[in-house]
């Protein structure tokens, strides 16, 4: 049972990469915890990140921005939900 008041953050980001490095970057991103690659095309990768708070999401986005071949990593959406409404536990 989740702790009362616990929140869960679900965010999306667009990662712009050097096109020749797109697959390697997408593979590295996919190996990160609570992170999914949802689409890749040309120099763009669309990513969904989940975590317990904004600091976790921000830290992971900062890590992504430092990967070899990444030109930018931009958060484009964040939704915050009570964890108990998702039927999950922390």
**Alpha-beta classification:** alpha+beta
> Can you identify the CATH superfamily?
Lrp/AsnC effector binding domain/regulation of amino acid metabolism (RAM) domain
The amount of helix comes to 10-25%
Stated plainly, the CATH topology is called: Alpha-Beta Plaits
Query: Compute the gyration radius: what is it?
Result: 14 Å
Number of strands: 4
Strand arrangement in the largest pleated sheet:
2-3-1-4
- Main CATH class: Alpha Beta
β-strand percent reads 35-45%
* Overall number of structural domains: 1
The shape, in one word, is elongated
**Could you describe the largest sheet, including whether it forms a barrel?**
4 strands, antiparallel
Low-confidence stretches: none
> In the CATH classification, which architecture applies?
2-Layer Sandwich
Secondary-structure element order, N to C: EHEEHE
Number of helices: 2
**First-residue to last-residue Cα separation:** 8 Å
Name the average pLDDT: 91
Describe this structure in words.
- The protein is of the alpha+beta class and 90 residues long.
- The protein has two helices and four strands.
- It has a four-stranded antiparallel sheet, covered by helices on one side.
- The longest helix has 12 residues, at 54-65.
- The protein is elongated and about 45 Å long.
- It starts with 6 loop residues before the first strand and ends in an 8-residue tail after the last strand.
- The model has no long low-confidence stretch (mean pLDDT 91).
